[in-house]
Amino acid sequence: MAEAKKLEVLVVDDDHESYVPRFRRAFNGRVEFTPAGNAGAALRLAHDHKYDAVVLDHDPPINGYQTAFKIKATTDNELIIGFSEKWEAEEARELGLYYFSGVEANIAQIIAKLLKMDRQTYEREVKPHFDSNGKVQ
Question: Mean pLDDT across the stretch 89-97?
């Protein structure tokens, strides 16, 4: 049987090393997370590859609003998920973000949805990696 295609996610966050390794463990090889620590790296990667999703921080040095705008305007990467408490509904609507939240568990639920992971599998395999505040452990 052929191995299922992994979901490919570009993570644009200067602090990605604080949670991407744990997200990798939570999704147990189902998702390929490609980190970019700044907007320039993100734009280069997004120009070179079509990702299934882009998870994007809001704060400097990223400038999430401008980075999202440039990614949408100049690449084929359209599904952008805002990951920061600083994203506001108005700017998310303006940019056409797929979703936004500052809670890691919420981002994991969206990734599971993109994987078409059923609720039971999520509850059994992914959810245990998050604490009661939604932080990845």
Answer: 94
